[in-house]
Design a protein that fits this description.
The protein is 41% helix and 28% strand. By secondary structure, it is α+β, with helices and mostly antiparallel strands. A five-stranded antiparallel beta sheet has the order 4-3-2-1-5, with helices on one face. The relative contact order is 0.12.
């Protein structure tokens, strides 16, 4: 039994083994950097742009929701975080402000 446990013990590197440890850390650092610049950073940028777009919404702006519904903003309620859209003559629908996907056309100046 003791021989079996000794056979499972990690083998000692005669050179100290620090070279493989450093290269492993460098590889993990490189992988993290790739993930940060290819995935995390662009996602944060998109979230910031979406938040800025939502803060600029005003009555009369034509928008598209995440579900694909086109309409113009009738009322913005910042306290509740909702927007009332006019999607047809006399048809008003209330959406969460975060469900606005894009601005189609800025409101027209009167």
């Amino acid at each position: 039994m003791v021989h079996y446990l000794l056979a499972m013990a990690p083998q000692q590197d005669p050179n100290g083994g620090s070279g493989s440890m450093i290269s492993t850390l460098v590889m993990f650092g490189a992988i993290f950097a790739i993930f940060y610049f290819m995935i995390i950073r662009p996602q944060q940028k998109r979230q910031k742009e979406h938040k800025d777009m939502l803060s600029k919404l005003d009555k009369g702006t034509k928008v598209v929701t995440n579900s694909g519904i086109h309409g113009s903003i009738h009322k913005v309620d910042d306290e509740k975080g909702t927007i009332e859209l006019v999607i047809a003559d006399g048809v008003k629908v209330t959406f969460e402000k975060a469900s606005i996907a894009a601005v189609v056309e800025e409101k027209k100046a009167n």
